[in-house]
Amino acid sequence: AYWAIQSIGAISVSLNAWWIAEELKYALSDSETTVVIVDVERLDRLSDDLLREVGVKHAIVVRGDARPGVVPWSEVVADHGAKLPDVSIHPDDDATILYTSGTTGFPKGAVGSNRNHVTNVWNGLFRAAQNAALADPSVPRPAKKQPKALWTFPFFHIAGVTGVSVAPATGGALVTQYKWDPADA
After folding, report:
1. H-type helices in 32-146, by residue range?
2. Please, what is the average pLDDT of the chain?
């Protein structure tokens, strides 16, 4: 969903999964979100009236059953012969809105541009190259294989979004859990 949003030049607004309905309502209204992609737990917090009130035109549900008027994720990702639109996306276009913790009042929507996220990727790649250059050459290096990471950062945090950007840039994979399970991890 994140990369689909980016590829059409839209803005991804990742919201805190622990927020209650009023907090979600505030951020959806503040960000002027028109489409939500939520799991059934978040959908249960978002009544049809609330979604209409804040201007959401389309709701898509993953991990759960869709109620009337809500589109199931399986329908969205079904192959309908869709092609990416021909859009012009510029480095300084807005790409994300991530909300602060709101410790001094309502959370603030922090806007990130495409350039911000590419810079985060390049900084990570530079750091990895620097570490490799400084590594002791006498220490055996493991065989190259696809990098994988158990990703524990929430995707409503900049570290989570950065991981979503760094993984494809390095050929890596993120392993996630819907809910933290130490034994499974």
Report:
1. 40-45, 48-54, 73-76, 114-134
2. 91
